[in-house]
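Need the bound structure for nicotinamide-adenine-dinucleotide, inputs here:
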Amino acid sequence: MVKVVISGIMGRMGRTIARLAYEDPEVQIAGGVESPDCVHFHENVKDILNKEDVDAPITADLSKIIERADVIIDFAGSTEAVLGHVRLAAADQNRKCMVIGTTGFSDEELEEIRQLSKDIPIVLAPNMSIGVNLLFKLVEDAAKALKDKGFDIEVVEMHHRYKKDSPSGTAVKIVDILKEATGIQKVIYGREGIYENGRPSDEIAVFALRGGDVVGEHTVIFAGLGERIELTHRAGSRDIFAKGAVEAAKWIKDKPPGLYDMMDVLGLK
Ligand code: NAD
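Answer from helper R.:
Posting the output first, comments after.
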């Protein structure tokens, strides 16, 4: 049995994770963390789930309930808040693990998470679905195979109108994979202006579309002369990410300190 505290519990992802964690016999919801500014703030997870057999306090301050948790699943809508939680978990006398789904960290914040993962096990993954993690692998294989063969690479993503960060954490990860596989270092976000000599071959362009209630879509286009390959993942429901987060919490409980990603959890490496 793994005891989880869910941070950002009133959010779109937090609520979905709470529902799936409740349904999983190997998981016990020990508490929730939520911003006091949240207009729908509830004091107990049972009020979110409408389940009388749950008794798990919700607080704005993780330090008040951290002793109840084996693993903190963090999908808080603030990278600063998540970093505060990682610091708290790393400083705790008892071994605490973290599963971080929040995206939009700065390079400095990522470096601090990397440092803190020397003390505690952390899964950090901008996308916890099995399909997207397979997409990462397919993109890497395709990019390596097509390297220096005259294919232009463009990345397109689309998300719902409320998404805070842009481009998505998943698109950023795809770009990192493409850079590593192709050696191309120049990345541009959107395209404007005049291209007298056509599209430069030594750049990757990323386009972030926003609108409606789109859960998340990512396409990597490899465009050559006379043929085009497109690798696409479309998320139809947030359950795929939440399921991954719950699986990651079960997986990480017995792991040594270190920084892991979803490819580790899913055995795709
Ligand atoms: P959301 O805005 O619906 O939810 C975020 C929640 O965090 C809100 O309830 C907000 O009040 C709360 N929050 C804000 N400050 C907080 C604090 N200091 N402490 C605790 N809670 C706090 O957003 P969402 O759609 O649920 O997404 C949350 C994050 O997860 C985003 O960064 C998003 O990009 C990311 N995401 C990751 C995956 C993945 O698979 N890794 C999938 C979907 C979304």
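Comments: The longest helix spans residues 130-146. The radius of gyration is 20 Å.
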